[in-house]
Amino acid sequence: MDMHKQPLLGMTLPELQQVVKNLGMPAFTAKQIASWLYVKRVTTIDEMTNLSLKHRGFLKDIYEVGAEPPVDAMRSVDGTVKYLYRAGDAHYVEAVYIPDEDRATLCVSSQVGCKMNCKFCMTGKQGFTANLTAHQIINQINSLPERDKLTNVVMMGMGEPLDNLDEVLKALEIMTAPYGYAWSPKRVTLSSVGLRKGLKRFVEESECHLAISLHSPIPHQRRDLMPAEKAFSITEIVDLLRNYDFSKQRRLSFEYIVFKGVNDSLLYAKELLKLLRGMDCRINLIRFHAIPGVELQGADMETMTALRDYLTSHGLFTTIRASRGEDIYAACGMLSTAKQEENNPELI
Q1: One-character DSSP codes across 112-145
Q2: What's the CA gap between 327 and 334, in Å, rounded?
Q3: pLDDT tens, position by position, 79-125
Q4: CA 35 from centre of chain
Q5: Which domains does the chain have, with CATH numbers?
Q6: How far is CA 128 from the centre of its chain?
Q7: What is the pTM of this model?
Q8: What single string gives the DSSP state of each residue in 19-40?
Q9: Is the Cβ–Cβ distance between 334 and 122 less than 8 Å?
Q10: Residue 54: count of CB within 10 angstroms of its CB
Q11: Hey, which residues are catalytic here?
Q12: How far apart are CA 108 and CA 96, in angstroms?
């Protein structure tokens, strides 16, 4: 990618309208450019053949499409593929493609590293490096080799999406707007630890599904697992979300990693029922994947099944999420590019 040129990929229609206005091009060309980028998925400005040569020349002086293929891929025995994308100078992010019978999901990153430092997550151990731009977020989808098979996108990769909300909202707009990919917002889920300011904005400015990382219904224990609890507690998050309607198309779920001997007894199930009483929501139980330097262990399947059955029988719809890509460090909480950034000067 030319470091001196700005990428068009990742621009919203209002931003493209500003581009053509600044270049003295007719207003209608913004929609044409959006169609070339998001519907026809060109990789060069020269392919935008319904723009005049002169206008293409104007664009090429300052801009490029900015489609960047992944620089590496790792394949799991279960068909999951972890892709490595360049994210600016000497940084990388991972995106995970998960095929599953009639669905294919892409787990997309929003930051290089993460500030949240959750105890059970490798991305948090990497520390925070940079926010991704809307271009770098959309490029993970646009340049995915299996792009045509995608049915769903989850903003559950590296980083905390609400900590980079302006760029994430732009990317979500491109995914769901008629000028962009025109996907139903029901195809997109954003996962967050719950940041006060960002959470309210996301719920009000987007119609995509929401998944909150819960992991313990007991505040002091959640604080030990997730430092973000100090700033905005799970009880405050739930109180805020009670003001919104999740009973129709939009889904609210709570992610719950089950740790052996930590949060896996029926005592916790009862606290979950108390915390979420009367809400239209579901719980996703997730198996913990051991990571270096962390003494936590995952609960066995028998314990998880008992937890699921108890919650479901008490009216809280609960599922156990199938674990994918563990052998290539692509499962929940296992994404990290710290090693690649240290060890791969030749990739840069």
Answers
A1: EE-SS--TT-HHHHH-EEEEPPHHHHHHHHHT-T
A2: 10
A3: 999 999 999 888 999 999 999 999 999 999 999 999 999 999 888 88
A4: 24
A5: 6-64 (1.10.150.530), 72-347 (3.20.20.70)
A6: 16
A7: 0.95
A8: HHHHTT--TTHHHHHHIIIIIS
A9: yes
A10: 9
A11: 94, 332
A12: 7
